[in-house]
Specification:
10 helices, alpha/beta, Rossmann fold, eight-stranded mixed β-sheet, 8 strands
């Protein structure tokens, strides 16, 4: 299937306005450019929201809790995308509002500290610490009134999905936070840049091969760090015992092949997997609330599967 017409038109507008490609920017320039995306997005579904500060290493992580009108059936800890370098709570608020209302879950959107100031394993550490804190504090979170035994899930998109996977691996190892599920949206799962989806010219869109190499250079600049399964989880030898997974990939995405390879590895390890390849869509499509119609169908799949997953975990 060819790239969706709305996506092509959107990319043409971005190309006309761009000063230079992402991989030629400084981190600060890239953060400023990425923040502009937030100005064109719809606000997302109406729901209550509360600002949180999560203590980590004598500092705090910025976070926001979204609570639907209906009684939440789970707490989803969500890590934003942006190649571990850009992005934050503001740009991903519309997406998390939509998930909270559509799936009937409370969503805690966490802004981890970013590379290159905080390279690997810094963001992994932040994600794991935030998950443990939210698990321990869920009954005391302001404005939510969540039960202490409410099912916990982790999720994210792109680099955020990579961090969510790392949390599942640490939770399995440490056995301190039981997780009922994981939501992985076009996840980064390996540090290889020559898979077919990576080199296909038609996939060099919002996120390119050059941009991903740039992100990895800032996040995990050495081969030794990239080989860790907490950075490249496709290299984890054993994926058994991980929580049920919802995986979304995009047809025209450099990360498509590694995301689908990870989904297949999970299935082979006996983990239930619900996978959607979004036809005609590119990397980043899901967050484009009110901009790309494909985000609506992707959200419908995610929210339906989340409701079913949570219902099973509550039996």
């Amino acid at each position: 299937m060819s790239l969706a017409a709305e996506t092509r038109a959107f990319m043409d507008k971005l190309a006309a306005a761009a000063s230079k490609p992402r991989h030629l920017m400084t981190p600060d320039e890239a953060r400023t450019a990425f923040a502009r995306i937030g100005t064109i997005l719809s606000a997302g579904a109406e729901c209550a929201s509360v600002a949180l500060e999560i203590p980590v290493d004598g500092s705090t992580l910025r976070a926001r809790l979204f609570v639907p009108d209906e009684r939440p059936q789970a707490l989803l800890v969500y890590f934003h995308g942006g190649g571990w370098v850009v992005g934050g709570v503001d740009e991903f608020t519309p997406l998390c509002r939509e998930i909270a209302v559509g799936a009937g879950v409370a969503v805690a959107l966490v802004e981890y500290r970013k590379a290159p100031e905080h390279p690997f394993p810094g963001p992994v550490h932040d994600a794991w610490q935030a998950t443990q804190w939210l698990a321990a504090q869920r009954a005391a979170l302001p404005g939510a009134e969540l039960p202490a035994d409410l099912p916990m899930l982790v999720g994210g998109d792109s680099a955020g999905a990579n961090l969510a996977i790392a949390v599942t691996l640490l939770a399995r190892r440490e056995r301190t936070v039981p997780l009922a599920g994981q939501l992985l949206v076009y996840p980064v799962t390996d540090c290889v840049f020559d898979r077919p989806s990576y080199v296909a010219p038609e996939n060099q869109l919002l996120t390119t091969r050059d941009a991903m190499a740039w992100y990895w250079t800032h996040y995990a600049p050495t081969d030794a760090t990239r080989q860790s399964s907490l950075a490249s989880p496709l290299r984890e030898a054993d994926l058994s015992g991980l929580p049920e997974a919802i995986v979304v990939t995009a047809e025209h995405d450099v990360l498509r092949d590694e995301g689908e390879a990870y989904a297949q590895r999970l299935e082979q390890a006996g983990v239930p997997v619900h996978h959607l390849r979004a036809q005609g869509q590119m990397h980043g499509f899901l967050m484009m609330i009110g901009v790309l119609p494909g985000s609506r169908s992707g959200l419908r799949f995610i929210c339906e599967r989340l409701r079913r997953l949570v219902a099973r975990s509550s039996r």
